[in-house]
Amino acid sequence: MDLNANKRTIIIIASGLDLILSAIVLLIYFGLFPVDISIWGISRWVIGLVGGVWFAGSLAVLVYQLTKTTE
Q1: Which of 18, 41, 53, 63 satisfies CB 3.0 to 4.6 Å to 58 for a cystine?
Q2: Distance between CA atoms of 66 and 8, rounded to whole angstroms?
Q3: What is the pLDDT of residues 59-70, one digit of tens each?
Q4: CA 8, CA 48: separation in Å to the nearest integer?
Q5: What's the pTM value of the predicted model, to 2 decimals?
Q6: Is 71 exposed, middle or buried (0-12, 13-18, 19+ CB in 10 A)?
């Protein structure tokens, strides 16, 4: 069993799920999902910032893992 391949697969799955969750947060921020974020008590720009940074980070990890060559 190749532990590096298993580790890479788990990282790809985890970053893919992170990408989906952060995209949902951004869709809520942009108003495409009918969720009222004003009741959370958090400023709207903070949710947009957190969602954007989360999305960019998970996208970077996913792209890196998918384009990484095997040794």
Answers
A1: 18
A2: 9
A3: 999 999 999 887
A4: 29
A5: 0.85
A6: exposed
